[in-house]
Amino acid sequence: MTAPECGRMSLVDLSDYAAGDLPEAEAAAVEEHLFACTDCARRAAELDALVRGIRSAARSAEVGGFVTDDILNRLARDGVRVRTFTLLPGAIVPCAVWDDDDVMALRLRGDFGDASEITLSQRVAGAEVVRATGQIAPSPNGEVIHAVPAGWIRQLPVVDVEILLTTPESGGEREIGRYTLAHGGTMHR
Amino acid sequence: MPDARASSLDAVTDEALARAIAAGAAGSTDAEEAELYRRFAPRVRLYGRRHLHDGASADDLAQDVLLRTIERLRAGEVRRPEEIGSFILGTSRMMAHGERRVARRRDALAARFMDRSMETPPPSAAALDAPRVAECLHALPERDRLVVLLTFYADREAPRIAEDLRVKPGAVRAIRHRAMTRLRDCVLGGARP
Question: What interface predicted TM-score (ipTM) does this complex get?
Answer without folding.
Answer: 0.92
